[in-house]
Amino acid sequence: MALIKSISGIRGTIGGTTGNNLTPIDAVKFAASYGTWLKGYANKDKLTVVIGRDARLSGEMIQNLVVSTFIGLGIDIIDLGLSTTPTVEIAVPLEKADGGIILTASHNPKQWNALKLLNEKGEFLDAAQGAIILELAEKEDFDFAEVDDLGIITKNDAYIDVHIDEVLDLSLVNADVIREKKFKVVVDGVNSTGGIAIPKLLKELGVEVVELYCEPTGHFPHNPEPLKEHLGDICDLVVKENADFGIVVDPDVDRLAFISNDGEMFGEEYTLVACADYVLGKTKGDTVSNLSSSRALRDITQKHGGTYEAAAVGEVNVVTKMKANNAVIGGEGNGGIIYPESHYGRDSLVGTALFLMLMAENGGTVADLRASYPSYFMSKKKIQLTPELDVDGILTAMAKKYENEDLSTIDGVKIDFAENWVHLRKSNTEPIIRIYTEAKSQQEADGLADAIIGEINAVAGI
């Protein structure tokens, strides 16, 4: 079991011992740390925080603990109940709140949960702010409110509908154009809140919806990370239903993957590529993704006359570079779409609407669309960390080994070769080293990853 503290929040497994897992005591301590930081940061007498959660089994327990902690600090709560990460992000500025928390462990299995922290803009905290919260958690020096100053709770379960309205109002989304096409789409909501939000959006757009695992019970029917090896059921159902395509989201609905009409994966990496293709065709500008994302976004951006740049992995890093570059769209290759006209956060509802617009205007099948894009293949592997592994030493040694190549060390080690690339980095959310590679064939990508893993093992003496 595990507890991972990082600048982006705290993530851990339910049960076990305090300090080693996400126990009730750890949830309260970290919530108190965020609330204490927020009181100093906002410098106001009365604060409000928006909170929402995905449907995982521990969600209600963790929410009760976190909400009670805020009430004890004298902070008012707007409780969205079952919600999505992008919905909470949108709600924070609309409510003029001082911050927000999403209780979700994203793509992690059911035993995990997490507190993801937002500022007053509904955006993730930066590294310096996160570091202060971690320091406060270590000190455990909290000043709780007296009885007359306790916070209050306001429940608002309408925000998924508000979120959908915000998507429908985007300048590049024309609901009538989508309705005319009478699309049929299968949706896998992994029995979390995507099973509420995505079908609602699609129905507003006149799409016939076939629901698969859309009951928000928290009993994930498969590993919730939207990878090919976990998605056999929806791939089969898309073909059986003769659907135009399938949609898969993770439990908190910030990762979006499509299944082509032939039952094959469109590819998470190509979610951003397709949405960017549509946006750049309407709005001239630049794009940003992270170092672990496909070169295909660079190719599409250049085709439309724009400039592409890569940021360190992590949504806050991508957002920072997008703002600096005034990028018109960006995100992460894990299916995360960030469209600034909506908000600076990964949003599967926005991505779904943009993709539907692309399909409605282009015609043809989703399989045809995928075939039209530059063909890259990615391998995503990992090495489990153990106490004896010197991760920083391993990464330094690998950077030294390839110092004469096109090298980036802003986030782990990224080596850009002429025909392929490899990115090595320590995960912020799991005790692993991630090894991402991309090449012109799957065999080449897998071979490069295996070769690099062999080199790492040699360096580590494994």
Automatic annotation (TrEMBL):
Pfam families: PGM_PMM_I, PGM_PMM_II, PGM_PMM_III, PGM_PMM_IV. One of its GO terms (molecular function) is phosphoglucosamine mutase activity. Its cofactor is Mg(2+). This is Phosphoglucosamine mutase. Residues 8-142, 172-263, 270-374 form the Alpha-D-phosphohexomutase alpha/beta/alpha domain. Transmembrane segments: none annotated. PANTHER family: PHOSPHOGLUCOMUTASE (ALPHA-D-GLUCOSE-1,6-BISPHOSPHATE-DEPENDENT) (PTHR42946:SF1), PHOSPHOHEXOSE MUTASE (PTHR42946).
